[in-house]
Amino acid sequence: MGFLDHLPNFCTVSSKKSKRKPMQTVEIKVKMDCDGCERRVRHAVSSMKGVRSVEVNRKQSRVTVAGYVEPNKVLKKVQGTGKKAEFWPYVPYNLVAYPYATQAYDKKAPAGYVKNVVQANPAPNATDENLMTLFSDENPNACSIM
């Protein structure tokens, strides 16, 4: 036995690790009418702990926050300014298979965007998509089918 084995353990090191939030980008839709609204939303979000950058696009009614933050806390902070806010519901229309589906098309969406809904995405085993590729120029077996 060594000398230190007889001494009581007075000096314990706490192994508590702080859980750091992952770096993420949060996009929020919030209607801002004037410079004052924009300034209030920007100040509320930029004062949060972990925020690295805040981009406000008043024309699209969009606030983009990047940093080590939780999306729900950012949304609550924006709603605390008295503005109606929600998570950004839109995706670029070229990423959606059926951008003019009834649920996806939205007149209020910014130019080039549609709502991200399940009905706008193709089903994985859709027969119309499979039939279209049968007679495609990219299909090397197309001539053998005819």
TrEMBL record:
CDD domains per UniProt: HMA
Q: Which UniProt keywords apply?
A: Cadmium, Lipoprotein, Membrane, Metal-binding, Methylation, Prenylation
Location in the cell: Membrane
Instruction: Spell out the protein name for this chain.
Output: HMA domain-containing protein
Q: Which InterPro entries match?
A: HMA_dom, HMA_dom_sf
A GO CC annotation recorded here is: membrane
Please state the span of the N-terminal signal peptide per the UniProt entry: none
**Entry keyword Nucleus:** no
> Which PANTHER family would you find in this protein's record?
COPPER TRANSPORT PROTEIN ATOX1-RELATED (PTHR22814), HEAVY METAL-ASSOCIATED ISOPRENYLATED PLANT PROTEIN 20 (PTHR22814:SF356)
Q: Enumerate the PROSITE patterns for this protein.
A: HMA_2
Check the record and name the Gene3D superfamilies matching this protein: 3.30.70.100
Q: Which residues form the HMA domain?
A: 23-86
Q: Keyword check for Iron-sulfur, yes or no.
A: no
- Taxonomic superkingdom: Eukaryota
Q: Which family does it belong to?
A: Belongs to the HIPP family.
Gene Ontology terms, MF aspect = metal ion binding
Write out the GO biological process terms.
Answer: response to stress
